[in-house]
Amino acid sequence: MAECKPAWLSATQFERGLAAFEAVLDAEGFHPTPTAAAEFRDPFAPSDWQDFLPSAALQPNSVEQVQAIVRLANEHKIPLWTSSQGRNNGYGGAAPRIAGSVVLNLRRLNRVIDIDEESAFALIEPGVRFFDLYDAIQTSGAKLWMSVPDLGWGSVIGNTCDHGVGYTPTGDHVAHQCGMEVVLPDGSLLRTGMGAMQGNKAWQVHKRGFGPSLDGIFMQSSLGIVTKMGVWLMPRPECYMPGWLTVGKEEDFPAMIDALRPLLIEGVIPNQPMIYNAVCAASAVTERKDWYEGKDPMPDTVIDRIAEQPGLGRWVMRFALYGRDGIIDRQREIVEQAFAHISSIAISFNKYDAANLPELENPHERVQAGIPSNDLNQMTKWYGGEEGGHIGFSSVLPVTGRDMATLRDLVRAKLEAKGLDYSAACIASGRTLIHVALVVFDMKDAEQTQAAYDACKALVEPAAKLGFGEYRAHLDFMDLVADQYDFGGHASRRVHETLKDALDPNGILAPGKQGIWPAALRDPAARNK
Ligand SMILES: Cc1cc2nc3c(=O)[nH]c(=O)nc-3n(C[C@H](O)[C@H](O)[C@H](O)COP(=O)(O)OP(=O)(O)OC[C@H]3O[C@@H](n4cnc5c(N)ncnc54)[C@H](O)[C@@H]3O)c2cc1C
């Protein structure tokens, strides 16, 4: 008897579906119970939560198997929840939005199909982790650099599909993907852009095809399963110059953001700088108990003590310059001049010959050179050590000091009202800041865990009222975030639903992803019967 299943199927119907999946997979790819699928639960969800529990997991090893699974899911009305590596930690991991869904995990599709040094791109499958792509580039001998997020264990495609970010000049991953192969909800295969033409030579170099561009509708999406994707890489620069900027006084922070904006828009700073507050910077190398044992939110006196440590500040920005010797020296001068009027700011740089990089000890310097690492996972251990949890509350704002200050004050107040520390990492990208509140908690502490999830939900509407939306959200408040995108009486939701109904009439792909529900489950009551 099935322990967990989609609510609208009988146990017999569900078991019949599972048997059909088993027939098209090998033993390694078939995990038919919640226990067998345990590694695809949200690692940071309380253990007694059943809301996002997967019933089973499937790990196909070919595109044909993915297609067969999708066709069977239609036949048996079984919802599938796609992941590539399935390490979307902080946003729900690999867990599905609706309990009883079957996880379709693509780790076994793990080929780096092509690395093209001439045009600086790679063509990869969904199971390829950042570590794998890095190794493949090194092995090929190509003089190319890639972008990585702070953790290298995720997949390039999964991260891109959830609008993820990295920290070299190709760190806006959506902007640097080019050409997809997608299994559609009916099991048929599509290639986007120039790939729509058989044998076309420009699939990985030209982002558009003929007619409306389709790639965007397969990201943060329940309309298809990406089975191949092109990724743009950057030529290895002559020099690599990571920099650190510290802001000693909290009141100087808005001015620092305003001074940063023109450097980003002009391209003087070409990568995606990360700006941490003192708590977040400390969490990369220490635990909370090293600073403060109080149950209340960390007071400013303690935060100041952290900020006074060498290399830290109330806020710290990591960033990097890349390019020809001499040119980046001039860029460095421009950066230094841009912040010279702010008295509490200090800036330092390291300069490396990129062709002969030494072993970089600092994980921040590795990440900005596109070298994968998992060291920064330490941040989740702030409260609970090995049992520390984390939710990303990730709002988007313009790069202005006034918006930054408004959002900072709101998020800090809401977290502190729930007894939590305000830990923030802001990713700057061109005209945008993504303010990620790392809502950290101790999973052993049920009350604090609940407070963390409640704090995120309590933030969504006030942030929207101030003009800030989330670019990505945990399963627990995905619907609430989607509700805020309300222009034109939720015109955007209506278009999403129209596409969903047309392409996936049985609603089998990722129901509820980004708050988009198939027709049969649009009424919340229908999801439990
Ligand atoms: C300490 C810490 C630091 C982090 N730092 C970063 C960071 O710097 N940048 C960042 O972006 N994130 C970061 N994250 C969040 C997350 O860990 C990464 O984004 C990670 O790369 C996502 O996991 P994945 O690549 O395995 O994606 P997956 O879990 O495989 O996929 C994520 C989502 O994308 C969709 N998807 C995946 N594969 C497909 C497919 N083949 N077809 C269609 N849709 C698909 C699904 O909706 C899925 O839920 C961090 C998390 C933690 C805990």
Automatic annotation (TrEMBL):
Keywords: FAD, Flavoprotein, Oxidoreductase. InterPro entries: Cytok_DH_C_sf, FAD-bd_oxidored_4_C, FAD-bd_PCMH, FAD-bd_PCMH-like_sf, FAD-bd_PCMH_sub1, FAD-bd_PCMH_sub2, FAD-linked_Oxase-like_C, Oxid_FAD_bind_N. GO terms for biological process: lactate catabolic process. Residues 50-236 form the FAD-binding PCMH-type domain. GO terms for molecular function: D-lactate dehydrogenase (cytochrome) activity; D-lactate dehydrogenase (NAD+) activity; FAD binding. Its cofactor is FAD. It comes from the Bacteria. The keyword Oxidoreductase applies. PANTHER family: ARYL-ALCOHOL OXIDASE VANILLYL-ALCOHOL OXIDASE (AFU_ORTHOLOGUE AFUA_3G09500)-RELATED, D-LACTATE DEHYDROGENASE. This is FAD-binding oxidoreductase.
